[in-house]
């Protein structure tokens, strides 16, 4: 469910970055601006800081005063005021809170980031893939960050893996079956 919520939000950002007639940068991606409906489908909200981006030889940028929520703002955006879609990618990556995790990330270090209510009942390889994706999204160099389309593809693949894991484990584990039924 958590993967699906993240994917829904990413698809919303991908739409304003790449599929809308004119492209925009949200500039204030944070947890409180991702709303859930009764079916836990995520929607991006608070478009008050959205900025139209202009095409340049180096991609799309928008020169602007720096706005948004500190802690989610990309370093380059903070320093030069150039909002890009990679600024939103950075903010989305900050939702994973893994910016300062060690480069030699392993499953033991990731365990401290997981919700204890999950009782270690999740596909560990998917958690690792999501953590690595989050780490790529918060790279200080915007060129090294994936674009939102790449993020959507990567998380879609991880979500499929977790659904396959769920299908095989749910039938074999009474505790897990109870958690899945309680959704």
UniProtKB/TrEMBL annotation:
Compartment list: Cell membrane
Domain of life, per lineage: Eukaryota
Keywords of this entry: Cell membrane, Disulfide bond, Membrane, Signal, Transmembrane, Transmembrane helix
Membrane topology, record value: Single-pass membrane protein
TM region(s), chain numbering: none
Primary residence: membrane
Keyword Signal recorded: yes
GO terms under cellular component: plasma membrane
Keyword Cell membrane: yes
Domain Protein kinase: 1-160
PANTHER family named in the record: CHITIN ELICITOR RECEPTOR KINASE 1-RELATED, LYSM DOMAIN RECEPTOR-LIKE KINASE 3
Protein name, as recorded: Protein kinase domain-containing protein
Organism of origin: Eruca vesicaria subsp. sativa (Garden rocket)
